[in-house]
Write a structure and sequence with these properties.
Elements lengths: L2 E3 L4 E4 L1 H11 L9 H9 L14 H8 L3 E9 L2 E9 L4 E5 L7 E6 L4 H8 L17 E5 H15 L6 H11 L4 H13 L2 E13 L2 E13 L5 E6 L14 E7 L1 H11 L16
Antiparallel strand pairs: 1-2, 2-6, 3-4, 3-8, 4-5, 5-6, 7-11, 8-9, 9-10, 10-11
Helix pairs in contact: 1-2, 5-6, 5-7, 6-7
Length: about 280
């Protein structure tokens, strides 16, 4: 059931409910298949019986239907993959966050000046964490995607096997692929300790080789808890479908939290990189 918190300008909405709101906001008809979602929104007081949108939704929908920059976060962990993000509009910024096992996401307005802080919060970045600082910050682990996948499969199997020695099973799987002892030991530690492996993409309308089109920048990393933050340098982003094979090189580099912060900042385009587009008509 959709709901909202007027004190913090935040809303809990499922994907089909967001679709219905976007249709109404742009004056488009709502398909019959979306009637249940429309009814839930009506029952929650977010739309009237006549299909009029609550004024509480206006900043959210203005940004949702005409974003200038879209930031998408895919974060994978032991509870599965979650999708979060940020929509930057002309006047407002909207953050959306999902929750493990829940269909609804929380949409909330955030202060535009805190965009980088919000991105850092979405990946649980801790600037006070010094685990990636000092000489250890120069650590690099290099192997292939096939070796990594063998380790991940072993970790998944161990996690579902009562009494299994997760770390040992992962190490053995990596060794079986021919990984060097040092690589197998370090990569196994990272796989077992990883809190999340995430990939963040920023996309906007810009120019490339004199032609208008969608531009994007991507950063990917692992948060390995006590073992620090590791930037994924290979496969190099952006990665296209079918480009990566088992033989593709894979490389992680340990970095300090400050470097992750810099990477997040670097995702955002300058004003000169953005081509403005006309906003769609509002209902």
């Amino acid at each position: 059931m959709p709901s909202f918190d007027v004190t913090r300008s935040r809303f809990r909405l499922a994907d089909d409910e967001v679709f219905v709101l976007a249709q109404l906001a742009t004056g488009q008809p709502v398909p019959e298949s979306m009637a249940p979602a429309e009814a839930r929104l009506r029952d929650a007081g977010l739309i009237s019986a006549a299909g009029e949108l609550s004024t509480l939704l206006l900043p959210l929908l203005q940004t949702l239907v005409n974003p200038t920059v879209i930031l998408s976060l895919e974060a994978g962990g032991r509870q599965g993959t979650l999708h979060h993000g940020l929509l930057i509009g002309e006047d407002h910024v909207v953050c959306h966050e999902t929750w493990p096992g829940e269909e609804e996401a929380v949409y909330r307005l955030v202060e535009p000046r805190t965009v980088v802080w919000t991105l850092a919060d979405l990946i649980a970045l801790r600037q006070s964490d010094t685990s990636g600082a000092g000489p250890a910050g120069e650590q690099v682990v290099e192997t292939t995607v096939g070796v990594l996948e063998a380790g991940l499969q072993a970790q998944e199997k161990a996690a579902s096997t009562p009494g299994a020695d997760e770390r040992q099973l992962v190490v053995e799987a990596l060794r079986a692929t021919g990984a060097a002892e040092g690589t197998a030991t370090l990569l196994a530690q990272l796989i077992v300790e990883v809190r999340s492996s995430w990939r963040m993409t920023a996309a906007w309308q810009g120019h490339q080789d004199g032609e208008a089109g969608v531009r994007a920048r991507v950063v990917a990393a692992w948060d390995c808890g006590p073992l620090g933050y590791w930037l994924r340098e290979l496969p190099a982003e952006p990665v296209t479908e079918g480009e990566v094979t088992a033989a593709s090189p894979f490389r992680l580099r340990r970095v300090a939290p400050k470097r992750i912060w810099q990477e997040l900042t670097g995702l955002l385009p300058d004003e000169s990189e953005i081509v403005r587009r006309e906003a769609p008509p509002q209902a």
